[in-house]
Amino acid sequence: MRIKDIMVPWNGKKRIKDGINKNCCIYSVNVAHALWDNSAYEVIDDADNKVGEIDRDLFRYLINSTNTNIISNIVDKFQEGVIAIDAEGRIFYINDAYTKILGVPISKIIGKQMRKVEPGAEILNVLRTKIPIIKDKQYIKTLDKYVSVHIYPIEQDGELKAVVSIFTDATEIVKLGRKVEEANKAVLRFKEQIEAQNKLLKLEIIGESSNFLKTVSQALIVAKTEASVLIEGENGTGKELIAKLIHSNSERKSQPMIIVNCAAVPESLIESELFGYEEGSFTGAKSGGKMGKFELANGGTLFLDEIGDMPMAMQAKLLRVLQEGEIEKIGRQKNVPVNVRLIAATNQPLERMVREKKFRRDLYYRLNIVEIKVPPLRERGEDVGLLANHFLQKYNKKYGKQVFFSQRVHSFFYSYSWPGNVREMCNCIEYAVIMCLDDCFDVVYLPPHIKESIGEITEERNRSEYTHGTLKEAVKSFEKKMITDVLSESNGNRSKAMRLLGLSRRTFYRKLKEYKIVSV
After folding, report:
1. Which fold has domain 468-520?
2. What InterPro entries does this protein map onto (predicted)?
3. Mapping DSSP to helix (H, G, I), strand (E, B) and coil, where does residue 416 land?
4. Which of 102, 341, 351, 451 has the largest count of CB atoms under 10 Å?
5. How far is CA 518 from CA 409, 479, 492, in A?
6. What topology does CATH give the domain 73-169?
7. 116-135: string of b/e by CB count within 10 Å (b at 16+)?
8. Which of these, 326, 321, 377, lies nearest to 344 by C-alpha position?
9. Which of 34-60 are b and which e, b meaning 16 or more Cβ less than 10 Å from the residue's Cβ?
10. What mean pLDDT comes out for the span 428-450?
């Protein structure tokens, strides 16, 4: 805060003998100035021209307050807005960022009572209760802005000395959130573009369910920004594919995307893995040193998968990199600047981990500027068939086969809960295509751990299908379903179906007519 920020225009009266330069920082003004016996002090420019004046009482108050309350010059350089009041509720400090964010000149409110400037301000509640307040999104109606606010009491020897409020402008983040709400519209426009559709197919991002399309749309919207992204979802849902989609549609798409699985890196190695090291920095260090993942991703995107498994000590260092834009390479004295867009993913409930103090709150909010949730496959009913057919075509081509799904397998896919999600389906179909001895992919070719679920699902389905009605009706329903399934498995070959069912030609065709089974 400089003298020019608190001065008032010169009233044109006779000049006072002594003056203070307008560019002088208030904290560096000689305290003796405050003892001048004048009703006001004049402010001069570098050419010794008078440009304004300062009220004596206000000036003395600010000199005393900024010396009794621990306010450093460095706060003036914060990107976050800072305002402080004393124990009486009087405003004694405001930094430049505050005026830029809220559009309020320092001279309008400095030295005034906060209850008169903004009667309902949260900072007054902290002044009264001495309890900190943290709000990640607060709307200021008079300014039409959203801010993230952290307010803390400052005490000395058990006595309240001041209250400081630190906040950032969250308006752009809120606007981004509103755009995300238009997810389905954006993704429909995207799907109309052939080139964009090909990108999705190349990444194996396949689906038409509304909740999955919303996820894709969110990824495409945030891709055009530099915001950090936190992708949440169960194992196997495709979090890495969503991260790749964001990178490939961003301004950084021509630069590398580096992937690190935090759960797969031992705690003792994760620092050197991320930040690298200099030659000779420790026993066993490679000759010439090693570049870390941050350096490798410089100019591009760094994807930290399973971020919830990152050790707490490493979380603090990661936070510092995000704040400073520099890494501290092991064995190097000087920090290395990096320009990296960070995307993180987790299958763990980070919000709960924050409450349990298992994950740093400040890092969580740094990562979670935009949160994208990837739905599990069991909540994407419309996509099961699309994904299954895609993987079948993929592995038929890979292994030179022409395998097709039997009706029983097709029905089973829709009944199975897919605990391993899309990854489990992909592996299941590749296994079956490899093991198939003929062209029909029947339940016998399912992986053993999945095959065990058939009995349970079939029993449940039978209970629901045959609980109501007479025995005669249940038998008819069962016969019709069995004939339909066998015809499907026989690829419509009626002679083969008759043989598998053990029916005579006459009985078989009578049943087709009775149950109105035209063709399969």
Report:
1. Arc Repressor Mutant, subunit A (1.10.10)
2. AAA+_ATPase, AAA_lid_NorR, Homeodomain-like_sf, HTH_Fis, P-loop_NTPase, PAS, PAS-like_dom_sf, PAS_fold
3. coil
4. 341
5. 22, 15, 10
6. Beta-Lactamase (3.30.450)
7. ebbeebbbbebbeeeeebee
8. 321
9. eebeeebbbbbeeeeebbbbbeeebbb
10. 90
Mean model confidence pLDDT for the chain:
82
Which tokens sit at 51? 């440009």
Q: Do 249 and 291 form a contact (C-beta atoms < 8 A)?
A: no
pTM confidence score: 0.54
Q: Which CATH architecture has domain 176-373?
A: 3-Layer(aba) Sandwich (3.40)
Task: State both tokens at 276.
Answer: 């690298």
**Residue 516, amino acid:** K
- Let me know if the fold of 176-373 is the same as that of 468-520: no
Q: What SS3 state is found at 168?
A: strand
- Is the sign of the CA dihedral 492, 495, 499, 503 positive or negative? positive
Q: Give the number of other Cβ atoms within 10 Å of residue 443's Cβ.
A: 16
Quote the crossing angle between the two packed helices 210-223 and 171-180, to the nearest 10°: 140
Q: Is the pLDDT assigned to residue 17 strictly greater than 80?
A: no
Q: Is 89 left (phi over 0), alpha (psi -120 to 50) or beta?
A: left
Q: What is the DSSP letter of 285?
A: P
What are φ and ψ of residue 166, in 5° steps? Answer: -120, 125
The structure tokens listed for 129 are 């209760």
**pLDDT, mean of residues 262-276:** 91
**Distance, CA of 305 to CA of 312 (rounded, Å):** 16
What are the distances in angstroms from CA 206 to CA 209, 422, 512? 10, 10, 38
Show Cβ contacts of residue 16 under 8 Å, excluding neighbours closer than 6 positions: 38, 40, 41, 42, 53
Taking the CA atoms of residue 454, residue 459, residue 464 and residue 468 in that order, the dihedral angle to the nearest 10 degrees is: 150
Q: How far is CA 10 from CA 20, 59, 211, in A?
A: 13, 16, 63
pLDDT of res. 405: 92
Q: Determine which helix (DSSP H) or strand (DSSP E) holds 56, and give its type and residue range.
A: helix 56-68
For residue 55, the surrounding DSSP H or E stretch is strand 50-55
Dump pLDDT digits (tens) for 457-516: 555 555 555 555 677 777 777 788 888 878 877 777 888 888 777 788 888 888 888 888
Parse the chain into domains and list their residue ranges. Answer: 3-68, 73-169, 176-373, 468-520
Using CB atoms within 10 A of its CB, is residue 91 exposed (0-12), middle (13-18) or buried (19+)?
buried
Our CA dihedral for 7, 11, 15, 19, rounded to 10 degrees, sits at 0
Helix (H) or strand (E) holding 167: strand 159-169
Whole-number pLDDT of residue 172: 63
CA pair distance 112, 114, nearest whole angstrom? 6
Which is more confidently placed, 136 or 113? Answer: 113
Summarised one tens digit per residue, pLDDT across range 296-354 is 999 999 999 999 999 999 999 999 999 999 998 888 878 899 999 999 999 999 999 99
Residue whose tokens read 């509720």? 89
> Token pair of 353, please?
């981990």
